[in-house]
Design brief:
The complex is a heterodimer of chains A (409) and B (260). With 409 residues, chain A is an alpha/beta fold. In chain A, 25% of the residues lie in helices and 36% in strands. In chain A, the strands form four sheets. In chain A, strands 5-6-7-3-8-9 form a six-stranded mixed sheet, sandwiched between helices. The N and C termini of chain A lie far apart (65 Å). Chain B is mainly alpha-helical and 260 residues long. Chain B has one domain. Helix content of chain B is 75%, strand content 0%. Chain B is built from twelve helices and no strands. The chains are: A alpha/beta (409), B mainly alpha (260). The interface between A and B is medium-sized, with 28 and 28 residues.
Chain lengths: 409, 260
């Protein structure tokens, strides 16, 4: 049985060039033809969500994710198409909707909980629990405006999670606050999911989507690109975006970050993904190739190609053809060298890359491109840090006799 | 929008209506030392000024003129307050429109309830005045709550239309303020309808507020039950305004979140 059904959804916004908000402006405006700009934000989007499923909605900024969520929440109305939702729906688009800074904590919990659909009886019952959970027992009769913003978020969150919906809509805007709070949010969504609540989850955080969602909907420019298995769709998203940004970045930065006598010139550098396509987004653990194209203006014996990876100011890793025992031989004209990594050990983040070519004794620099290139690595695991190291945990429980033996001096 | 099923939906949101109305009501006095007292001072001050001017200078001859005037001011204030608070009821709460969904007429309904609560306080003062001036109402006073119900419906109908229109044309609020100012003098609030010749009286009584105010006074101060024709007129006009208000509101409501 489907919990949410979206059929042929279209949404067009009419954005007037000059917004007329008073009647006078409207009357004057009658003389001139109205100038509207139409933005079609959603184009024929359809999908179905089964009861109890957790669906991730991903895509670039402006791809229509939030608009889609707002239409499902009934806040915006579609231009064409329809949405059917079965059961009680609660949108978590923003925390603390309807909070009044001049009322007390208790009063605000009452208002917010009512807006989120709780009945008076439930509120009375859960009031103490909410305040306890938000850790605001001391401040329950303080005006909201006297609380820190962190406390307010905590209060809003602990109120919001008292709702008991069948369908939950979550916007990433929720993902504010520190790591601990985000972790808390995450636990709550997991709890909801385990209770069989259908969740629609808009996020840029691929990690969270991967951990939480059963299926993923990928949107690009308002169109449904794909809908299906989480890992497959995330791969598709990561390996198909950002084709232009790389070029732009190169053009702007390539100035005083390059030196050498250019007897051998590095003409360009490509990062190649596991599908054999040029890309600058990779998933940790997948294969990864750096291809350095060169043009040798003279015959040169055994030049050394080198590469360095940086994560911000941290020098992560550097190697050369010579370190790896690869003799380049005599080169002339143009060609390329590949550095192939079977599985990319970088874990997550944006990495800058320096490539260089020098003489076999490193004394002459032919061409040095200092941090001119970069790529992103996405983390498919829950590991933290810059590097992915291989390792397995094992645990061995000592037999009790041995344990006693150890404890004796 | 004005169907039985919508009424059913509204009923399921009754907690929200009350909660919003009550918190709005409290907010109005929260930061002032004398709280509710200020809200009573305003009509009382008006009463004193108007009383001095009209009973001494203009020599209006009306029995219980103080009470006559006070009831008129309270009734008119309810209309004025209800509509002017509701006009900003949608645009003043963008997060409730854009970040969460419940039937949007709840915002207007709750604002009208807030206005009603403020009026209820003034009624308490009115009762005190009645005791002080030793005016004993007859059984006809039972009509007063009924008349207030229909004034509430009238105010709600107007508020629906105004609040919705104001989302798109912000000068509705200024135009409405003008209309209210004219209305205050065009409606028999400070003077009795009897100062006009009879054929003009009929014309003035086309204004439902004029009808309401004079019936309220008759049943409270002069032991006269309302004439059925006038009562029917008030009921019909209240329902018609509510219907038109909802019609406009329903037409404009879908794009509130975009236009706000």
């Amino acid at each position: 049985m489907s919990a949410v059904e979206v059929n042929g959804l279209w949404k067009t916004f009419q954005i007037p060039h000059e917004r007329k908000t008073t009647l006078f402006e409207n009357l004057v405006g009658l003389m001139k033809p109205r100038q509207y700009e139409s933005y079609t934000v959603l184009k024929d989007v359809s999908f179905e969500v089964e009861v109890g499923e957790c669906i991730g909605i991903i895509g670039d900024n402006g791809s229509g994710k939030s608009t889609l969520l707002k239409i499902i929440a009934n806040i915006l109305r579609p231009t064409k198409g329809e949405v059917k939702v079965r059961g009680l729906m609660t949108p978590f688009l923003e925390l603390g909707v309807g909070f009044q800074p001049d009322l007390t904590v208790r009063e605000n919990v009452g208002i917010y909980a009512t807006i989120m659909g709780l009945s008076n009886g439930e509120i009375r019952e859960k009031m103490n629990e909410v305040i306890e959970f938000a850790d605001l027992r001391k401040f329950e009769d303080t005006k909201l405006k006297n609380l820190s913003s962190g406390m307010q978020v905590r209060l809003a969150f602990s109120t919001a999670i008292q709702t008991d919906p069948d369908v939950l809509l979550v916007d990433e805007a929720l993902a504010v606050g520190d790591m601990e709070f985000q972790q808390k949010c995450f636990q709550v969504f997991k709890k909801y999911r385990n209770e069989g609540v259908t969740i629609l989850f808009v996020s840029h955080d691929m990690n969270a989507v991967r951990r939480l969602c059963d299926r993923v909907l990928l949107l690009r420019n308002g169109e449904r690109i794909d809908f299906g298995d989480t890992n497959k769709i995330i791969d598709k998203y990561i390996y198909a975006v950002d084709e232009t940004t790389n070029e732009d970045a190169k053009a702007t930065v390539e100035k005083e970050t390059r030196w050498g006598n250019k007897l051998i010139e590095i003409t360009h550098v490509k990062f190649i993904d596991k599908c054999g396509k040029e890309n600058d987004n990779f998933i940790s653990g997948d294969s990864f190739v750096v291809r350095i194209f060169y043009q040798a203006h003279e015959k040169i014996v055994s030049p050394v190609f080198g590469i360095i990876f940086y994560s911000q100011e941290t020098y992560c890793y550097g190697t050369t053809t010579e370190f790896k025992g690869c003799d380049t031989g005599i080169i002339e004209g143009s060609g390329y060298v590949d550095l192939l990594m079977e599985n990319l050990h970088l874990l997550q983040g944006r990495f800058d890359v320096t490539v260089a070519v020098a003489s076999s004794d490193y004394k002459t620099q032919y061409d040095w491109h200092d941090r001119l290139y970069s790529f992103n690595v996405h983390n498919p695991t829950r590991d933290q840090g810059i590097f992915a190291m291989e390792g397995n945990w094992t645990l061995r429980q000592l037999p009790s006799s041995e344990r006693d033996g150890l404890s004796k001096p | 929008m004005m169907t039985l099923s919508h009424l059913h939906v509204l009923w399921s949101y009754r907690d929200l209506v009350i909660r919003l109305a009550w918190s709005d009501f409290k907010l109005r006095y929260k930061s002032s030392a004398l709280g509710f007292f200020w809200s009573l001072l305003e009509p009382l001050l008006m009463l004193i000024v108007l009383y001095m001017v009209f009973s001494n200078l203009m020599r209006i001859q009306v029995e219980h003129y103080q009470l006559f005037l006070l009831l008129g001011i309270i009734t008119w204030n309810f209309l004025e307050r209800g509509t002017s608070m509701s006009i900003g009821g949608i645009i003043g709460k963008p997060s409730l429109v854009q970040k969460v969904y419940f039937p949007r007429d709840i915002l207007v309904i709750s604002t009208c309830f807030t206005a009603l609560m403020m009026t209820a306080l003034e009624i308490v003062v009115f009762v005190i005045f009645m005791v002080v001036f030793r005016v004993v109402p007859g059984v006809a006073v039972a009509y007063l709550p009924i008349l207030f119900v229909f004034e509430f419906i009238t105010v709600l109908g107007l508020s629906m239309a105004l609040a919705a229109l104001n989302v798109y044309f912000r000068d509705v609020q200024f135009i409405w303020r003008l209309i209210l100012q004219i209305g205050f003098f065009a409606t028999p609030v400070i003077y009795p309808i009897s100062i006009f010749p009879p054929n003009l009286q009929k014309f003035i009584m086309l204004n439902p507020m004029a009808c309401l105010i004079s019936m309220m006074r008759d049943c409270t101060l002069y032991q006269m039950a309302p004439a059925s024709a006038e009562l029917a007129y008030v009921v019909v006009s209240a329902l018609a305004l509510l219907f038109i208000g909802y019609l406009i509101f329903g037409r404009l409501e879908p794009k509130f979140a975009e236009a706000i």
